[in-house]
Specification:
The protein is an alpha/beta fold and about 450 residues long. The chain folds into three domains: about 110 residues, Rossmann fold; about 130 residues, 3-Layer(aba) Sandwich (Rossmann fold); about 140 residues, Dihydrodipicolinate Reductase, domain 2. Helices cover about 35% and strands about 25% of the residues. Helix 9 runs parallel beside helix 10, helix 10 runs antiparallel to helix 16 and helix 14 packs across helix 16. The radius of gyration is 25 Å and the shape is globular. Bound molecules: [cytidine-5'-phosphate] glycerylphosphoric acid ester.
Length: about 450
Amino acid sequence: MVKVITYGTFDLFHEGHYRLLKRAKALGDYLIVGVTTETFDKARGKLNVIDSLMTRIENVKKTGFADEIIIEESVGQKFSDIKKYHVDIFTVGSDWVGKFDYLKEYCQVVYLERTKDISSTMLREKKRHIQRFGVIGTGRIAGRFMSEARNVSGVEIQSVYNPHPASAIRFAEEWDLNAYRTLEEFYKNIDVVYIASPHETHYDYIKDALNHGKHVICEKPMVLEKKQAEEVFALAKERNLIVFEGIKTAYCPGFHKLLGVACSGRIGVLKNIEACFTKLENPQHRELVDTKYGGSFLELASYVLLPVLKLFGTDFEDVRFETIDGDNGLDLFTKTSLRYPNGNLATVTCGLGVKAEGRLLIAGTLGYIVVGAPWWKTSYFEVHYEDPNKVEKYTESYLDFGLRYEISDFLSRLNGGEKDFCLTRGESICLAGLMERFMQEHRGGQT
Ligand code: C2G
């Protein structure tokens, strides 16, 4: 009996998939089809898969060509499957030519001609209207957003705006966009505004975009006052639009895995969180020069507070800030302590002018989770127990700048598929409240 194996996502099952399976079956007597899990697809950069794993399996089953269906959940599995199932022929579409030649040592590898003019991506784009984005702000993060957005299907970035036209033109040339001199012109032909301008300008840009009927993704910290956050969320709701705070860590798969393990009871009842993120900044840069809106807390606290709000919630009873300031009064290093009514404690640290070990530590009654730097791009963490020999290791992929996860989550929200699970409105409002409180205590209430 000749055993054949093939793999795929089979999202929005179409003619190309059907023809591939038919020909795969004809290559032998017994066909095994590996259907990818969502986690595996995310890990290999395939975001925005629409159909659930069950639906995709069901669709493969319906063709009647598969004698056995398995799931594919990790890189390297093909190799072990070939051994495990005594496979004679591995086959896949011609879009993969050469990519699986390394399997030739173990079985025959056949690339079948891909069916032209049909793909899941095309169907996804037809099903979901392409979201046209415009970018406000042209700094480093905006550039990263551009390169990441190109990895997410359903997004087309069209325009850029910067009150300094020369910067907008430079960015537009670099990324092949249209640069506009006025916001009115910029809003034409876009659905979503991505805001990556200086912190203090976010609030006005968000309101203006919403008032022009545009959805918003705004870089962190989204706004600097609690009532501003409440106001923009209320305005968005009233206008049936989405406002979304871009804290990249909140959307990345490794951080979700970490939250899952922390909440699972493996380390008992959670009691204490410590998080530290420092990034030595050039003293001439805005972050250490702008005495009103610079400093380590405004720049980095969104990251270090995130695990605390996700795991302990937003109802702390006390918060205290301690800072080491530079000559201009800006905080070079800030320690924030939070105490919760149930006795839980959190200490989070951020720094732009003092270097410390970037680490996230979540302590529970049975053990602790530790993530080394850069934990804010979570890709590896360990669980430790009283017995020092017992260590569990977890890995998850984190691709390039990691912004693709937040863009993909935003699109799912836009398409009605997801609630604000990764970063809730309540958490964003709480973060804005903490920014406000810090500024009141540390900048004499200037916001
Ligand atoms: N396919 C095809 N013609 C199309 C579209 C897809 O022949 N017009 C083939 C692909 O080449 C693949 C199979 O259908 O062999 C499934 O395609 P996808 O769902 O896009 O899955 P893919 O990402 O190609 O997964 O481990 C996963 C596999 O390596 C391939």
